[in-house]
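User: Reviewer 2 asked us to show a designed sequence for the structure in our supplementary figure. I'm pasting the structure tokens here. Could you produce the per-position amino acids so we can include them in the response letter?
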């Protein structure tokens, strides 16, 4: 056997130390500052919301981020409104609260949202009586 066991242990330790530093840097990556100062803020954009009902509802409320953005006491069969909403790339959640008359049959509501880029997103919900539904638009 050649060489001293002590020198071999020191050499192995130095090799492991040399590999350990890059491994530590790879596994402990410093997260870049994700503050909104460097990023593009989510500005309010004007979107067009169109609603179509199969049965006339008694009332309609639309909320976004806990804030009521549209309230109609007795909406028509088709209604639309331009809303100024924060519309991030991930999409938005709108809370729809619709009340149909007690004697109304199963009814549907079609929601059509046209964003600031001109893209149209369409969703629909069904319900009777009182409906509270959160809908996500991509």
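Assistant: Here is a per-position design you can include in the supplement:
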């Amino acid at each position: 056997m050649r060489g001293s066991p002590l020198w071999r242990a020191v050499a192995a330790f130095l090799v492991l130390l040399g590999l350990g530093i890059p491994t530590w840097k790879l596994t402990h990556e410093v997260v870049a500052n994700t503050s909104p100062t460097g990023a593009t803020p989510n500005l309010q954009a004007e979107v067009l919301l169109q609603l179509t009902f199969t049965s006339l509802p008694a009332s309609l409320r639309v909320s976004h981020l806990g804030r009521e953005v549209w309230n109609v006491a007795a909406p028509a069969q088709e209604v639309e409104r331009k809303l100024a909403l924060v519309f991030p790339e991930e999409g938005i959640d709108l809370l729809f609260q619709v009340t149909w008359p007690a004697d109304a049959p199963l009814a549907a509501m079609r929601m059509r949202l046209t964003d600031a880029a001109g893209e149209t997103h369409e969703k629909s919900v069904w319900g009777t009586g009182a409906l509270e539904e959160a809908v996500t638009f991509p």
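For the response letter, you might also mention the following. Strands lie at 44-53, 59-64, 67-72, 78-86, 92-99, 107-114, 120-127, 130-137. The mean pLDDT is 87.
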